[in-house]
Structure prediction request, 428 residues.
Amino acid sequence: MKCLGRLLQLAVVALLIIVAIVVILPRVAPVTPTAELEAVISAVERLNGETLGAESVATGATRTMYERDGVGVDDAGYARLDMNGCLLGIFRNSEIEIEGLPTDSAPACIIEFEHGTIYNRVKRKTVIDAQWAVITSIATEFLVHLNRERGIIWIVVHDGAVEVEAAGQTVIVEAGWQTWVFRGQPPEEPVPATRPDVGDLFPSIDDLTNGVMVDGDLLEPREEEPAEDLPPEVRISVEPKQPAVGEPVVIVAEATDDVEVERVAILVDGEAVERCSGSACKVETEFGEPGAHTVGAIAQDTSGQSGEATTRIRAVSPAPSVSLEISQSTDEVIAGECSGVKTVQIVAEITGSVADVQQAVLQYRWEDVTGDPVVMERVDDQTFIAEIGPFDYCCAQTTIEYNVQVFGSSTTPLASRSGKVLLTYCIG
Prediction:
């Protein structure tokens, strides 16, 4: 009986020990906190914090995660990490490490963010150590993008608010606002979460998340002020630039506008000479009097705005109409000791606008010799004469070539004629 009693005592003690292990100890001993990793799209790795090994996680598969474990997502992947109140979307080219999981005594999620893009939906206090900035939030939704190569972090808050601390300064970013932090610099003052406010400083959210999210999920398009309605711009061209009186002139006017050009009119000296629908107009006209003339164009757009342009054109008197005939006293002149004709007389006869002719000039040459220009003598309104020679020349027969030009008030000749005379050398 004593043995049986002893056995019963031992059995009771053993039962009490089992109850303590099963019921009491779990309530006293701390529970190791865990998180759950899900590979939504493959190309996700679980980084073991104890072994430092990497394990690929297939699409749709899950893994239990512990403190010091990490997650790596390559260019095509997408993962979700549930940290018991802190849900992270981890997008392409990203890597994080779990620094702390929430417990009753320390109810916070702590993440060390290496690089990439994450979107956070958190109900607990969350601390993200993003290299050169620390982001703290409670019950909020926000995106963080970290580019180590460029040395910049981007934070966009969708709901709630986050606190961003860097370089000893802190800013609060409310829902619908954004900020960014350059390495070694304090956070920028928050600005509205619009794409125009951030510009091209960061890629589109579509690109950062492989289309899982888009710019419109977080960034609002800024309401741009309506553009000012500008008047049409008008250009004019005139050919020729300096027409003669009575000479055909082509005027072209073209207009451009931020709305639409409705019509264009061309004016000469204030009078409309052509009206056209659309943005271009062309007319051929002439000037009846010499002197300065104003050429203009007016364009009107469909909203009623008008634009104009002007240019000044000088019309010149038409060139005088002059005809010129020349004659010479001989067809051959002699150089040297032999007797014979030593000079040649050139006669220029003009007809037409004789009063506009002011002078006639004779030029001549032979071989590589050029004579000095000769201003011909005017013997009457229509006739000019000049005599050239004797000529200092020897050897083989050659030809004297000459040219007569008559001039008015300009340096452009009104008429021109050429002739030739034989030059023969003789020694007796």
The chain has three domains: 35-218, 233-315, 322-426.
